[in-house]
Amino acid sequence: MDKTTATPKRSAKEQMIRGSVWMTAGSVFSRILGAIYVIPWWVWMGGAALSANALFTKGYQIYAVFLIISTAGVPGAVSKQVAKYNAMEEYRTGLRLFYHGAIMMSLMGVVAFGAMWLLAPVLSAGDERMIPVFRSLAWPLLVIPVLSLIRGFFQGYNEMAPSAISQFIEQVARVAYMLAATFMIMRLGSHDYVSAVTQSTFAAFIGAVFGLGILIVYFVRQRPRLHELAANGRDDLHISTNQILIDVLQQALPFIVMDSSINLYYIIDQYTFNPMMLRVFKTSREQLDQIFALFAGNANKLIMIVVSLAVAMAVTAVPLLAAAKTRGDAKELAAQITNNLQLFFIVMIPAAFGMGAIAQPLYVVFYGYDALGISMLHLSSFLAILLGLFTVLAAILQGLFNNRLAIIEMLIGFAVKIVLQWPFIVFFNVYGPVLATIVGMAVSSGLMIYSLRKDYHFNLNQTVRRVLGIVLFSGMMYAAVRAIIGLFNLVVSPESRFWAVVMLLVSVGIGGLIYAYLVLKTRLADYILGSRVAGIRRRLHIR
Description:
Blueprint: H1 3-6, H2 12-36, H3 38-45, H4 49-70, H5 74-87, H6 91-123, H7 130-136, H8 144-156, H9 161-188, H10 193-232, H11 241-259, H12 261-280, H13 285-327, H14 330-357, H15 359-367, H16 371-399, H17 403-428, H18 432-456, H19 460-491, H20 497-521, H21 524-529, H22 533-539
Helix pairs in contact: 2-9, 2-13, 2-14, 3-9, 4-6, 4-10, 4-12, 4-13, 5-6, 5-8, 5-11, 5-13, 6-7, 6-8, 6-10, 6-11, 7-10, 8-10, 9-10, 11-17, 12-13, 12-17, 13-14, 13-16, 14-16, 14-19, 15-16, 15-20, 16-17, 16-18, 17-18, 19-20
Pfam families: Polysacc_synt
Transmembrane segments: 21-40, 60-78, 98-117, 137-154, 175-194, 200-220, 302-322, 343-366, 372-397, 430-450, 470-492, 498-520
Main location: membrane
């Protein structure tokens, strides 16, 4: 951590872009790795692949909520509070928060582990196969709360590299253990897919241990500088340790609710999809489990690569907004909100449109040809825009200490999802849950944008104009890529994995060039990303 960390010389926009690059790199590479493992995992599972993925998905949906509760929203809260104290030059208070918070989070981990282990039979909802899966996912809850605290502490200093690198190392270790265990069981051992899934979910513990180890190394190296900052900073804020922790928990509760919101949407699907479908259609529970895996497991795993772009931006935005709010700089706040949203749109919209355009070859590469699965991925790709937008907007509101408003507007959208779930399943069949989620997320996002415009007067008109340009250029790229894949389908088999890889390489390359040329040629990239983009345009001889 250099001295620019304590007294940033970069503008808030530059810090946002720099931090987003680090967090995006770590998050996207981790997500890609977390998707690529599916290819050998799927092959080794053989005929049990869809059933295994249904167990894996159901286990992780519940685990994700336990994880958010066990971390108590602390990463975001600590990031926000440390940024606040740093803006006041009260570095010693931030360190006190960290050391006492580590003890508190260790205890939270033990409690969460015990709760998930004991509740496994209840959470299984009568499916005995789920009990060992849930219990294997209790183990990482011992480690991740402390790991998350350290990440939040570094993020409060606008140091995103430790979080990004540890996230990637965590994923590498998790995937390596998962694949080794699956191969040993399914190819050399008992061939019991439930055991293979159980070891695959236990891999989260292995990954967490490695991720924590990397963060501890970073902290030990930075400790002298952190204590030097504390020694040279102010010490005018006389606040008890208990009050520091209470402040963090008060800020953390909204993060628990907001961070778990996307998972709660999928949990609604998990516990309502089968019963509602069985009331309308004649089918088997096993077939419904497999259909559920198509959108909640297969499609979700791929679109979360795109959504991770928004998560990275959201993590970067929170401490910057909290610091600006603490300084009371209304003009800077409006500019930051505008920058955050426009940066999100220029990356997220083309990424989601692009994934929708390549849904067929992308799905074939990972899971093999399945017409319904491809349609689910295509629809879910556009859902990714709303999931990402909701994530960024919620982070902005929380960074501005508007926690209560964020929760209320999230709950309104969530209520819309619940109300629409049944009629949408009746009218739209297996697509109903995804469409209900789209409407619910759209309602919440619309309310949040209205609130931010009303209270902080960010430049909505400029943002809308630029978003329309981004949508237009993304639509042109989408049409071109779809046409390329359509031409391929005329001469090669759409079910071939080899040709799917060829389609991806050609279509992604051409689509990326089309979008990049359009945003550079029109100067749209300059307006949003800054003047440095002009250098790229000159090197590419685009006038």
